[in-house]
């Protein structure tokens, strides 16, 4: 099958002075495109039997006791460039807790850690490409970029293809968050339509009454409607 050509104008700018850490990390020379090797296209692979029963439930999967915060469902489909579901894809997420703090030794934000929230989850996409996570809405947090820059509420996503060389890493934002338009990382993407594809709309059809809201986030891995990568060009 012939792949649709990439529109590199949609991708985040590698050199964006407003996003300070992009300056030392941006390439100084022209990019070189190389062919993928057999090992990059076929392996290594992961074992689907390694997933636990609660791996896609971030509210309970750290200690078995419920995490603190607003309960939400995040769901959607992993799709190819023609809109077909991609089955068997490993979908992983990680995020800050309800106060905007990560469980990481270098996170020094003043918000407290939740002893029952690890902030990581994973699942396998179904035959139609669908996936679902039960989690806590993450909080916004400040970061040392500008004088008073804040990251919007967001969830990091990683999607593996048929090998670990086929990987998409991106971020999902929440509909209505005013910090999205103010974020220097988001603003490295020059196309507003591409930014909009990173914003998950509220999905009341999947919300559970007296329990949790839901947000729908489809991930398109190639083609004209592809989901933007996180601060880098595409993989395979």
UniProtKB/TrEMBL annotation:
Domain Intradiol ring-cleavage dioxygenases: 74-102
GO MF term (any one): protocatechuate 3,4-dioxygenase activity
Oxidoreductase found in the keyword field: yes
Enzyme class: oxidoreductase
InterPro entries for this protein: Intradiol_dOase_C, Intradiol_dOase_core, Intradiol_RC_Dioxygenase, PCDO_beta_N, Protocat_dOase_b
UniProt keyword terms in alphabetical order: Dioxygenase, Oxidoreductase
UniProt keyword Oxidoreductase, yes or no: yes
Signal peptide: none
Enzyme Commission number(s) from the entry: 1.13.11.3
Organism domain of life: Bacteria
Family: Belongs to the intradiol ring-cleavage dioxygenase family.
Name under which the protein is recorded: Protocatechuate 3,4-dioxygenase subunit beta
């Amino acid at each position: 099958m012939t792949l649709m050509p990439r529109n590199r104008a949609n991708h985040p700018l590698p050199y964006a002075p407003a996003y300070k850490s992009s300056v030392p990390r941006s390439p100084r020379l022209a990019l070189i495109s190389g062919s993928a090797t057999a090992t990059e296209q076929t392996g290594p692979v992961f074992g689907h039997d390694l997933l636990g029963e609660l791996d896609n439930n971030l509210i309970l999967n750290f200690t078995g006791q419920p995490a603190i915060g607003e309960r939400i469902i995040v769901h959607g489909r992993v799709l190819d460039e023609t809109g077909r579901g991609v089955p068997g894809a490993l979908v992983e997420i990680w995020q800050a807790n309800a106060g905007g703090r990560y469980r990481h030794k270098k996170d020094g934000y003043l918000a407290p850690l939740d002893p029952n929230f690890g902030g990581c989850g994973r699942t396998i996409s179904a035959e139609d490409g669908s996936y679902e996570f039960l989690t806590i809405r993450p909080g916004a947090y400040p970061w040392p970029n500008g004088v008073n820059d804040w990251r919007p509420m967001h969830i990091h996503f990683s999607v593996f293809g048929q090998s670990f060389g086929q990987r998409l890493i991106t971020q999902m934002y929440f509909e209505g968050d005013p910090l999205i338009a103010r974020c220097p990382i988001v603003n490295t993407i020059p196309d507003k339509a591409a930014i909009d594809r990173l914003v998950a709309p509220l999905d009341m059809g999947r919300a559970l009454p007296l329990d949790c809201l839901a947000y729908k986030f489809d991930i398109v891995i190639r083609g004209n409607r592809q989901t933007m990568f996180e601060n880098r060009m595409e993989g395979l």
